[in-house]
Amino acid sequence: MRWWLSLYKLRCISCKSIYDADEVEYTCPKCGPRFGTLEVIYDYDEIKVNKEEFDKNSDIWQFEGILPIERGSYRTKLKVGGTPLYEFPDIAEKFKVGRLFVKYDGGNPTASYKDRASALAITKAYEKGYDTIYCASTGNAASSLAGLAAPTDLNVYIFLPASAPIAKISQLFIYGANVIPIDGSYDQAFDVSMKIGEMKGWYSRNSAINPYLLEGKKTGAMEIAVQLDWNVPDYVIVGVGDGTVVSSIYKGFYDFYKLNLIGGIPKIIGIQAEGADAVKRAFDRGEPFEPVDMPARTIADSISVGKPRDVIKACKYVKKSGGFFVSVSDEEIIRSVKELSESTGIFAEPAGAVSYAGFKKLNEEGFFTKNDTIVLVVTGNGLKDVKAIERFVEINPVKPKLDLVMDYIDGMEKKK
Amino acid sequence: MRWWLSLYKLRCISCKSIYDADEVEYTCPKCGPRFGTLEVIYDYDEIKVNKEEFDKNSDIWQFEGILPIERGSYRTKLKVGGTPLYEFPDIAEKFKVGRLFVKYDGGNPTASYKDRASALAITKAYEKGYDTIYCASTGNAASSLAGLAAPTDLNVYIFLPASAPIAKISQLFIYGANVIPIDGSYDQAFDVSMKIGEMKGWYSRNSAINPYLLEGKKTGAMEIAVQLDWNVPDYVIVGVGDGTVVSSIYKGFYDFYKLNLIGGIPKIIGIQAEGADAVKRAFDRGEPFEPVDMPARTIADSISVGKPRDVIKACKYVKKSGGFFVSVSDEEIIRSVKELSESTGIFAEPAGAVSYAGFKKLNEEGFFTKNDTIVLVVTGNGLKDVKAIERFVEINPVKPKLDLVMDYIDGMEKKK
């Protein structure tokens, strides 16, 4: 066994069986892929890190001592992570909460949070000796895998619902990935991809199934802790599809807590779209948690998931944190995209703005207090899906004549 | 006079008249807007900076001691600049050049280099007491102004050609800017905006006209110097529309050179689209430089400029650097978008990929040697204009049945 393998093990989220890292590839053989997603657990006493080595603007690899990867193995060339955490005192004041922050991941190489996971998956593919990697995705995981793998010699296969936004689909082709557009839902694309991947012997970057993705994603939470100078916020609010990102937020803080770098773990609030709130439904039914599948329908394509793959972990982690799940309507989501853009300059894709929509909804119910510090995670760039905001666009071209343009402007000013 | 005004003055690029900062707003009254764009000149002996205070990942405001702004005035909330400089040894090897770097600005808040200029313009609008700011733009300057001004109380008016890519137009509306879609070219939108702006008493963020924009843009060059550990590359290659970005690259290195922070200035090579190469034409005719206007037609909308506004400065600066201009076809541009994406994972908009197209063209002519260090500036994110790459997208949906998908994959593999 190579030395670093002793530093971490894999544990089933349901039956708690513990496996060596080279013993199991994806999920617990006893509990199956729905109930048996794995956690990466560490021997925290053996991990030597201290606060001073972390930087507010560095990339995800600054956390490599707390990641399940080999020293010296492949690292993505493009800068993943090190994304900004912005404070908005005016918004906090408007909503009468203590402090409000936005962790904005739209500036990642392929413009979404998913780059954190794809970076890890690519490293693991190399470590494990695969030559092909694949995923099923509504778009962001796919473009992220395609983009970050583009400069490598890995073959990339992407299974995606043919209905994904054109910007996301275009990214795949431009990166030279092999694209298989499925005439069906994300859930159908996912299931068929798993079978193909197994038959072909490809490495899976499928959400939740691959235990290392969450470890990549947890770096977002770790950055929040570093950027807040090791002060833990009261709440972190984030959109939920498969449940892996929300779980990763917990895990990032959990690892730091176990390493005595922070004094606690924030309450994690997961926000779902009303038309695809299968994780919330499972959570609200209570323990023992069980998947509650449903047909998914929401404008927020990145979280349009009816059969969430990390539902057990998401429910358990959110519960442990003292948090819960909320759902918001498509109308609330789209209005949040606009309001967030206008008030912060951050143009989020719909799935990225759900955190803001959820925050507003809870705040209207009087949930937060003047003492609360809240972090909203905005997971993707609005440029990924401009179609979603077409309703705000109004183009009535005017000829470039001075008097006509003056009239046009007068008309605009009167309308206000 | 306030103390900081003594640190810099404005000088006409043509007649060399020198003005105090509060004496002239935009261009030299004697030479007019085409010949009389202004340079910001400093008393370098009075500027106290040293190498140690600069960071490879910080934002543009780390250079505030070398920017024409007041201490303590408005600074953009969102992180502008601090964008990555990537080295690609494999590409350098493939093309038999020394070292090849890409400065990628697509991760800026509104996903383009223009954020650097808009940030300065907003600061100056506040310092000068304006309540409204405007620009004419093919898209990037506009979305950047709209996005960075969104969280401020400035009113924003945008004049843009109604033919701009929908992603760029959508950004404007989502940020709540007042959009005036002009049924005409960028050049027509520009001219009418100048008249309206003057009549209304608004502050102009129009390219080249406003001398401070270039000062914001020069931070890109300064970052390159910092990121290369103060080693100056042999060549910096960048796309050219109005001529302000290419001028700013020179100015950034020039300022650092005058401050004794670097030992020289790289040769600057400006790349234009063949259908809009008015700056190249002016340059090639030689001194004294004069504008050579033309109808503009290129797929690279951000540099689709027939009447460039900074042509004199661009020609003079590029000449002083020992560089020159090259033009490339739309076909070369689009192929460069694809090649750059596939080989680096950087998905550039067409105007961003022209630097790579120009590099390849020159290299095919045997221009570069094995000793040359070359930096390509990629100015904008490909998500800004996915329509431009539609030709690479091929969607033939397949039903989510195992055998059908297997056949589909076999078909893909055979085609290779």
Detailed description of the structure:
The structure is a homodimer of 416-residue chains. Chain A starts with 7 loop residues before the first strand and ends with a helix. In chain A, α11 packs across α12. Chain A has 416 residues and is of the alpha/beta class. Chain A is globular and about 75 Å long. Chain A has a domain of 208 residues: Rossmann fold. Helix content of chain A is 37%, strand content 15%. In chain A, β10, α8 and β11 form a beta-alpha-beta unit. Chain A has a 6-stranded mixed sheet with strand order 4-5-13-10-11-12, sandwiched between helices. A 4-stranded parallel sheet of chain A has the order 8-7-6-9, sandwiched between helices. Chain A has a 3-stranded antiparallel sheet with strand order 2-1-3. The first copy, chain A, contains 13 helices and 13 strands. Chains A and B meet through α4, α5, β8, α6 and α11 of A and α4, α5, β8, α6 and α11 of B.
Structural class of chain A: alpha/beta
Find the biggest chain interface: A-B, 80 and 80 residues
**Structural Rg of chain A:** 21 Å
What name is given to the CATH topology of one domain in chain A? Rossmann fold
Oligomer: homodimer
Strand arrangement within the widest β-sheet of chain A reads: 4-5-13-10-11-12
- The poorly predicted ranges of chain A are none
Tally of individual helices of chain A: 13
One letter per element, helices H and strands E, the order of chain A comes to EEHEEHEHEHEHEHEHEHEHHEHHEH
The overall average pLDDT of chain A, rounded, is 95
The tally of beta strands of chain A, per DSSP, is 13
Question: Largest sheet of chain A at a glance?
Answer: 6 strands, mixed
